[in-house]
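Lecture notes, structural biology module. Today: joint structure prediction for complexes of two components.
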Amino acid sequence: MSDGGAPIVELEDVWRSYRVGDEVLDALRAASARIPVGDYVAVMGPSGSGKSTLLNVLGCLDRPSRGVYRLDGREVGTLGDDELSEVRHHLIGFVFQTFHLIPRLAAEENVALPLVLDGVSIEERRERVAAALEAVGLSHRAKHRPSELSGGECQRVAIARATVMRPRLLLADEPTGNLDSAAGRQIMELLEQMNDEGLTLVVVTHDLNIGRRAKRVFVLRDGEIVQRVAGSELAPEMLLAAPIEATA
Amino acid sequence: MKSSDAVIFSWTALSRHRRRSALSVLGVMVGVASVIALTALGEGARRYVTREFASLGTNLLIVLPGKNETTGMFPGAGGVPNDLTLGDARALRRGVREARLVVPIAIGNETVAYGERRRQVAVVGSTPDFRSVRRLGMGAGSFLPESDMERGAAVAVLGAKLAREIFGIESPVGRVIRIGDWRIRVIGVLAPKGRQLGIDVDDMVVVPVATAMRMFDQTSLFRIMIEVRAHSDLQRARQRVLAIITDRHEEEDVTCITQDSVVGSLSQILTVLTLAVGAIGAVSLAVAGLGVMNLMLVSVSERTEEVGLLKALGAKRHQVLRVFLVEAMMLSTAGALVGLAMGWALVRVCVMLYPSFPAAPPLWAVASVVVVSIGVGTLFGVLPARRATRLDPVAALAGK
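The predicted structure, tokenised, for the full assembly:
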């Protein structure tokens, strides 16, 4: 699989290790990858294989213990907390399995949060929030609180919030995990539509069907990226926890 | 993040837990209100006392027998002070040009009787000028007659309450009463005045100074009050008084104080007292601060995921800090404002119940209690807010 175009993400021999008691646990081992702008990558693998760790490192929520991570050409692995916040703020959008909407705020207020942090004026905020909600098809639910929205609608609000700052990279951690299949399909269609418009998309998922729709799939096992295949070539046995002979 | 946005964001968080927030506000409120009320009482006492003294005029010199300052010489050199006599009073009246009035005063306690009724009261011996220096009005009859200081006529002027108690509705003027063993004719009744410097003017009897001294077998005056013509003459008059007495007694064995200094030191004492009660009230403010801290700690741990989210969205440490600090400040500011209103209401009630007592919180107390209460709330908000900023975003998002 060729990495065409300028890379937004470059990982070179990235490790993430935790000290658990006396032992050192390598949640991510020697990960190297290039993700070009506009790519659509599904990260798959059994539980505990390091999918979330990889996503947290990509999202600058976590720092690599070793190795080099360049985001949009800039080395970010060694930045301080506030600089990482800055990077997340401007380059990265997050979509979570549990939405992470603030329950006391209306949909539009949740979407506006990143703009509020940025000190954007109320008028500009209103415009950008309206546009973001429009893009996820939820303009009519702007005033509703999360408790008054369905799961699918909540995830749409979260996507609007993740994209309102116009990030370069959208990271989704099991975005359909808490949704029924119809709502899940709609959410994936929405994310893919954004990908079609040029947004780089990385999705962590257990769902084989989602993996098959991705342009590329990274399969993780025990913290290592053991396979990279095109989504269309994904086979169920690749995802088993016990290592079986690789089919490639 | 703009301040207005921070305030709105915090408001949504606080208003979700109305009762909890209200209790925190209540804590600060009680602290602020108690400081306001306590200092208002202290300040009221100070104003009351200074007003009392000021009502006597501030151009007063008071001469008392005995010297209350030690000289550092070997003890016993001063010996027993000489009496302060009517002769001294006359000499002062002649010699102190700045004096408008020189009023000798003798004081004792005796039983006043008329018929079967008797009453133990203060007996004040003085001169006609006493009325002027004490700003006393007449209810009936006349005050002491002008005459030689040393001539003790058997006449008396009664306080309003004393007259009422022993005469009832009968008019006392012209009647003969007994003061101890003395038969004295009542020539007048004072207008009601109330307490003045601890003596109930309405419940005393005034007789000529020589009469009082004989009655109580006193050789020394209680004191001599001198009213000078102008305030600026006070110090010069005081020097002259001391010179004249020293000349007559051959030593400086009297104390001469100005009304000003008495008022000044009393006012100072009461201000310190006000500060002290204010500080006691401030203890409750500190307790209220702990309440705010407690609430903020709960708030931070309840909103761990929210902190994680804010960080994921790119909130910097100072922004997270700000969100929680603003919350603590809003709680303490609300408490301060409600407390001000509450304290003010308490003071109003006090003034309504005791109109003669000028209770009012001093401005310094109001200003400092507002600053301190908001400061305390913010200070106690720092610890919880810092805890929020230190959360690891990955763990926080997972609610850990």
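Point to remember: The mean pLDDT of chain B is 87.
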